[in-house]
From TrEMBL:
Pfam families assigned: SMC_N
Coiled coil ranges: 160-187, 344-371
Sequence similarity: Belongs to the RecN family.
Limits of the RecF/RecN/SMC N-terminal domain: 1-508
Membrane-spanning intervals of the chain: none
GO cellular component, one term: bacterial nucleoid
Keyword terms: ATP-binding, Coiled coil, DNA damage, DNA repair, Nucleotide-binding
Keyword Membrane: no
GO biological process, one term: SOS response
Name this protein carries in UniProt: DNA repair protein RecN
Annotated source species: Candidatus Aphodenecus pullistercoris
Annotated PANTHER family: DNA REPAIR PROTEIN RECN
CDD domains: ABC_RecN
Lineage: Bacteria, Pseudomonadati, Spirochaetota, Spirochaetia, Spirochaetales
């Protein structure tokens, strides 16, 4: 519940602290005194968009702090825990700072958050009923949501949505398969031709590089042969010119020296190793020279093969690897075309299974909604009769519609306000005053299911008076037994029932307009109740106000 609201430099408010310690609080004041400013400040900490022009003129920033408490095990606690934003002793502090430069800062328990976070959390903290909310009650989607809320069908609805998405996905896959098959059927001859060309080529990764090297070697065979001949001659030349002969001479001379100095043996060993290595190289070069023979046919064959691969590379991606990848792709495409009927049958089974599951879950959802609607109809009708619509009959009609993400049902709230009249959708037959009472009747009917602790009513009493106003006050009082109720009202009957009463007023200080809000009691509250009743304060209105506060009127 909302424990405390602190507002600084916001619109006409310089500095304000409101303690909401009671379960039923009312805010009253003359039109234009600034009651909407309080709603605006609270709206900001609940995630509404902020504007720079809400900063009090001449100030750099507006600051709103709201302190909430929450129950252990509540949805609020779960939301905070999942995001690591828990506070101490189930306390929750939300701060919103709006700077005149336009930037906004938001935090929960000292942790920076986004406006989306505040919006999500705000829906768990405060339920706002206003003239706008009355209008939203006319929407079929909102009416369906209210029935689902009372039905506690979140798990079933979640399963239904999964089935709906599964069916939609299966149908999309069918459309994709049909479209793809149509496209590929038109291209099949071309793909078959290309694949046949690639299959006949017996492609092997890296073959084009090997062929290029072979052809380069063949084209330079004369140069290679001459160079190799020269290399072999340099190794095997005569005793005085070949490397091996010169090494042999060195070995002979070194052998004589070793007889006089055995420490030279290591050099002799190294010369021996070098001689063996050079001999091996000379033999290998000789073998390579012997193999350097290419026929004209071999040259033509390799050239033709490389040209074939180059054509395929140019046609299918620029590299042999790309050609091989395209070949594999075309194999798969033709396989899919050939298997189209099988794939279509398999997907048709998937569609049928998803449709059956959707129909089953949709029927269960409809069943739950019908039971809930029947229960709600009775409760809301009884509540409306308490609120002065003595002959009212409230009904909830469920009509089948094409399957959508929210089920197979359309919900319409209908009202017969007077005996003998035909019932009709509340959007067509309910007056402004009746809409206010329907909203309150629905809130009262859903109080047991509503996990939101704080209910804020913004002039829900608009257009009401007399006995009906007293009935509305009684219902708000009843709601405050299970929820915190905060209401902005023009009705004395409601103000008198509240446990704490805040007066909103506007004045001038140092040549500037300032809105102030103070909690009132005693004679000050009597005078405000009298003003609400009569518009001015007189002896009679004061007496009536005292009677109302004492519960005698």
């Amino acid at each position: 519940m909302l424990e405390r609201l602190e507002i600084t430099n916001f619109v006409l408010i310089r500095s304000l602290v409101l303690d909401f310690s009671s379960p039923f609080a009312v805010l009253t004041g003359e039109t234009g005194s600034g009651k909407s400013i309080i709603l605006g400040a609270l709206g900001l900490v609940l995630g509404e968009k902020g504007r720079a022009d809400v900063v009090r003129q001449g100030e750099k920033e507006a600051i709103i702090n709201a302190l909430f408490s929450y129950r252990a095990g509540s949805a609020v606690e779960d939301w905070l825990r999942k995001r690591g934003l828990e506070g101490d002793d189930h306390g929750l502090v939300i701060q919103r700072v709006i700077r005149s430069a336009g930037r906004s800062m938001m935090s929960i328990n000292g942790y920076s958050v986004t406006r989306s976070d505040l919006e999500d959390l705000g829906q768990l903290l405060v339920d706002v009923s206003s003239q706008h909310a009355h209008q939203s009650l006319l929407k079929k989607s909102v009416q369906l949501s209210l029935v689902d809320k009372a039905a506690h069908d979140e798990e079933l609805l979640s399963e239904y949505r999964k089935a709906f998405d599964e069916l939609a996905g299966a149908k999309e896959e069918t459309e994709r398969l049909v479209a793809e098959n149509g496209r590929l059927s038109q291209e099949r001859d071309y793909i078959s031709f290309c694949l046949d060309e690639m299959e006949k080529a017996s492609l092997r990764p890296g073959e084009d590089d090997e062929l290029s090297e072979d052809l380069k070697r063949i084209s330079q065979s004369g140069l290679i042969t001459g160079c190799l001949d020269e290399s072999v001659s340099a190794l095997r030349g005569g005793m005085d010119s070949g490397a091996l002969g010169l090494i042999a001479r060195a070995q002979s001379s070194l052998g004589k020296a070793i007889k006089a100095d055995s420490s030279l043996q290591s050099f002799a060993d190294r010369l021996e190793s070098t001689s063996i290595e050079l001999e091996d190289i000379a033999m290998s070069l000789g073998d390579y020279l012997s193999s350097m023979s290419f026929s004209e046919g071999e040259l033509e064959e390799k050239s033709a093969r490389l040209a074939q691969l180059q054509r395929l590379k140019k046609k299918h991606g620029g590299s042999l690897e790309a050609v091989i990848a395209r070949r594999d792709e075309y194999r798969g495409i033709l396989e899919n075309v050939d298997n189209f009927d099988h794939l279509l049958k398999e997907n048709a089974k998937r569609v049928a299974q998803a449709q059956a599951r959707l129909d089953d879950l949709g029927a269960k959802l409809t069943q739950v909604r019908r039971r809930t609607a029947s229960r709600l109809e009775k409760t809301i009708t009884a509540n409306l009769q308490k609120l002065g619509l003595k002959s009212a009959v409230f009904t909830i009609e469920l009509s089948p519609v094409e399957a959508g993400p929210r089920g197979l049902d359309e919900v319409v709230f209908t009202l017969c306000a007077n005996k003998g009249e035909k019932a009709g959708p509340v959007s067509q037959v309910a007056s402004g005053g009746e809409l206010s009472r329907i909203m309150l009747a629905v809130k009262c009917a859903l109080e047991a299911e509503d996990e939101v602790d704080t209910l804020l009513f913004d002039e829900i009493d608009a257009g009401l008076g007399g006995v009906v106003a007293n009935s509305v006050a009684c219902e708000l009082k009843n709601l405050s037994r299970s929820h915190q109720v905060i209401t902005i009202s023009h009705l004395a009957q409601i103000a008198a029932r509240a446990e704490s009463h805040f007066l909103v007023s506007k004045s001038e200080e140092e040549g500037r307009t300032v809105s102030t809000i103070v909690e009132i009691g005693g004679e000050e509250r009597v005078r405000e109740i009298a003003r609400l009743m009569a518009g001015d304060v007189s002896h009679i209105s004061l007496e009536h106000a005292r009677s109302l506060l004492e519960g005698k009127a």
